[in-house]
Automatic annotation (TrEMBL):
Presence of keyword Signal: yes
Domain G5: 390-469
This protein's UniProt keywords: Signal
Protein name per UniProt: G5 domain-containing protein
Length: 508
């Protein structure tokens, strides 16, 4: 019995202790809730001091302080700052040589400045309350710097490197060949260096985003080994003359242009499948590149222009190409007949729309030798490995299909004395023609094919008749006769008009 009573007493005491513990725990929880609520209120009041629509203090994008700005204001400020950055210069070095460009020329821009501004505006505004509090509190001690996210325009950067930097490298040198007596002299190739454009662009972008202090700067461009495209062993097969042609080089200023064009083409090597554009090889046509003003065709007239005569260079080469039986890709006749070759054997060059282009259709390299020799003959000779059948030869025959004689056109010249006659223009007969390729085997004709058809416009003789006089009646008399385009009527009107003028001067 006593034992049972002790058990009951012990059980009641345990229950009392448990009730006290629950009460104490409840009080502790209540206190914690009260304290937490107070802390939350304190934190909330702290973070709420920063206006929701403005960026927190001590936040930078790059070196630009955007604190207290709205997102719109921050974006506008960054655009203004970008304009300042774009005006700065970068010095690109290759070895001990260098070239400059503005960052605008390289196409400097932001990858996504709007996203960066959003990040700046959201700092201290998003996430759990304690996180926001910690972020804003931290800005009191240390500024937050966000990267601008600079990028370059790949095409603009490549254009600048190609134009200004690529030439600074010690590039590979192709093997070359020259005619020497009865044989050929081959000069061995050399390896070199070229600018690694992609790696250089990446290096500049990395610098802009990681270390740039928003001042002009220098960068050492990335380079890589460059192999020569033509090697000495490639040229060992060049032993035979494939074809040649010459025209008389004449003299005067025009001769200088022929010599300049010849020198630019001389020594050209075309590997199998390579193409040559005479325009691209010889242009630009200006004084800086060795050309002078000389006669050329323009709108049916002969006028002086830089590079006048370059068409004779392309024409002479065209015929050498025909005899070499290379593949002609593009060829155009002149607007009017030329004197140095038969119709349909010419090849005009004009602007970027008339060109002579051809391709090395052999399986081995060809070499173009060009010169104006001691007899003043402009000659092109094409060498290579002749794989044509022994005894096979080719000739080219020009056939005139139609002819149209030029006429005479009378024009008034108000600045010339009444009745005076001046000849101008460049009279040319019009023609249509075609060129035949005739193949012979051991002297016997085996084929005849049309190579091209050409049309040459006629160009009339221009005769300018003066009408300058104080006698309006006399001037009108000649003017009406000019409109008739009748020589007899014009001659008669001139005689009558001079009589009127003479009578007036005598007081009649």
């Amino acid at each position: 019995m006593a034992q049972n009573r002790r058990k009951k007493i012990s059980r009641r005491m345990t229950q009392k202790r448990r009730r006290r513990m629950r009460i104490l725990f409840g009080l502790a929880v209540l206190c914690a809730i009260v304290l937490t609520g107070a802390s939350y209120l304190v934190l909330y009041r702290y973070v709420s001091k920063v206006p929701e629509h403005k960026i927190c203090d001590n936040i930078y994008i790059g070196n630009v302080n955007v604190s207290g700005l709205t997102k719109k204001e921050a974006r506008e400020l960054m655009k203004e700052h970008l304009q300042e950055d774009m005006a700065l210069k970068i010095t690109m070095k290759v070895g001990d040589r260098s070239a400059e460009a503005t960052l605008e020329e390289l196409g400097l821009s932001y990858k996504d400045i709007g996203k960066v501004v959003d990040k700046a505006a959201g700092y201290g505004k998003k996430g759990r309350l304690f996180t926001r509090y910690r972020q804003i509190k931290g800005l009191k001690k240390e500024k937050l710097v966000l990267g601008e996210g600079f990028v370059l325009d790949a095409e603009k950067t490549k254009a600048v490197i190609d134009e200004r930097v690529e030439g600074l490298a010690d590039h590979a040198v192709d093997a070359s060949i020259a005619k020497s007596g009865d044989g050929f002299e081959i000069i061995k190739e050399k390896k070199g260096k070229t600018v690694d454009e992609k790696a250089s662009e990446e290096m500049i972008v990395d610098y802009l985003n990681d270390r740039w202090d928003h001042k002009g700067f220098k960068v050492k461009m990335a380079v890589k080994t460059e192999e020569p495209s033509i090697k000495a062993k490639d040229l060992e097969s060049i032993k035979d003359e494939l074809g040649s042609f010459s025209t008389d080089a004449g003299g005067g200023e025009r001769w200088k242009n022929l010599k300049t064009g010849v020198d630019k083409i001389n020594g050209t090597i075309l590997m199998p499948g390579d193409e040559l554009s005479v325009h691209d090889t010889t242009a630009p046509y200006d004084a800086e590149h060795g050309y002078v003003e000389a006669g050329s065709y323009e709108n049916g007239q002969v006028v002086d222009s830089f590079g006048g005569g370059i068409c004779q260079v392309s024409t002479t080469l065209y015929n050498a190409v025909l005899y070499s039986e290379l593949e002609v890709l593009e060829r155009y006749p002149h607007s009017m007949l030329v004197a140095y070759v038969d119709p349909s054997r010419d090849a005009a060059i004009a602007g970027d729309y008339l060109d002579l282009k051809f391709k090395n259709s052999y399986e081995t390299p060809v070499y173009i030798a060009a010169e104006i020799d001691s007899a003043n003959q402009m000659r092109f000779t094409i060498y290579g490995k002749d794989t044509r059948a022994e005894g096979r030869t080719v000739e080219y025959e020009s056939e005139t299909l139609t002819t149209e004689d030029y006429g005479v056109t009378y024009k008034e010249n108000k600045e010339a004395e009444l009745g005076s006659v001046q000849y101008s223009g460049s009279p040319h007969t019009g023609k249509t023609a075609r060129l035949w390729k005739v193949v012979y085997q051991d002297g016997a004709e085996v084929s005849r094919d049309i190579i091209n058809n050409s049309t040459y416009e006629k160009s009339d003789q221009i005769i300018e008749v003066g009408t300058l006089t104080d006698n309006a009646e006399a001037a009108e008399l000649v003017r009406k006769a000019i409109s008739s385009q009748d020589k007899a009527a014009i001659d008669a009107a001139i005689a009558e008009a001079k009589g009127l003028s003479a009578g007036e001067s005598n007081g009649e």
